[in-house]
Amino acid sequence: MQAFTDFIAECDRGPRLNKLAGFFAETAAGKGGMPIRKPAVDTRLLPYDTLLLRFVELHSRRQGFFDQHYHSSIPYRLEEECRMAHALLRYSQLNTNDVLLYSLGTAEGTMARTLSEISRGSIRSLSCSPNEENYKCFMAFGEPTYASFFLGPFHRLTKEHLRSDKKLEPFSEGFDFILEDTTFQMYSPNRHKQIEFVAQHLKDDGILLLLEKFRAVDPGDYQGRESQKDFGFKTHYFGSKEIARKTKLVLTTMHDGQVTLAEMASAIYAQFSHCIVTWNSGNFYGLAASNSRENLRRYLSLMVYPAIPLEYVYEPEPYTDLARWVST
């Protein structure tokens, strides 16, 4: 881990563990930032599928405090979580071995925990968060048999730690999937080192799933999409004062850690040969990257169509090859 010494120190100084620590602790405990109503999946946007609906129902029951805040803040992110989970469940059904999933920095790890539960261990998952409040939500329904939780920030989960912890040791040979969900941007814009650090935990043909908020080349485009999100979606869940409070408290700082899609592409292709856009909602994009074209295609083929109204979708649209889009 000598090569990452400076990077780990950089993460320790990041806003997530310092300036924004109070916001995350308060929200994870349900003491602030809670929506006026619990977010619910709009099943009209999803196909009728028994496995998918089973996940939607169990996921709703397993949601913790931060999940409710998060899914009320990003248009149709909840539907996308169910779409991703459904693809992972289908992937596991076709796999002869258990699928290993690392959900990186995703609060109480609701999606990962639910996947492990509903698959009965065909998907074995590890979630992580530096907040004890998230861990309490993760454990609220009892200790899950096939899902684990690392109480600490992602950059402290090293290969050495995985090998030294008896419960986590089965993950030390690498994950089939790693999901980074709006985590990197809370630390710094150093995507090159962040992705390099996380990529070491993937199997050779593994898939890195990234979901982040991106800067736009034109600031006017970025602000227009922010207004669409705030006034067209978030007002269903938050009052104007709460939206303004979060903008001042979190989003301004978070913006400093955001990158453009072109900058993200540079970091991704330093580690991976292939990357496809999987989702878009305003300034948010989902990406899937791998060094195995065949395995990436297999995962993408199992995804149902994005469950989001077209007015929230911008270029590059889902299923676009990121390298081709950047080069145009």
Folded structure, characterized:
- The protein has 328 residues and is an alpha/beta fold.
- It has a single domain, classed as Rossmann fold (3-Layer(aba) Sandwich).
- It is 42% helix and 16% strand.
- The protein contains 14 helices and seven strands.
- The chain has helices spanning 5-12, 21-28, 50-62, 65-71, 77-94, 110-118, 132-138, 159-164, 191-199, 219-232, 240-255, 261-268, 293-301, 322-327, and strands spanning 99-104, 123-129, 147-151, 175-181, 202-213, 274-281, 284-290.
- The chain has a seven-stranded mixed β-sheet.
- Strand 4, helix 9 and strand 5 form a beta-alpha-beta unit.
- Helix 3 packs across helix 5.
- The longest helix has 18 residues, at 77-94.
- It is globular.
- The model has no long low-confidence stretch (mean pLDDT 96).
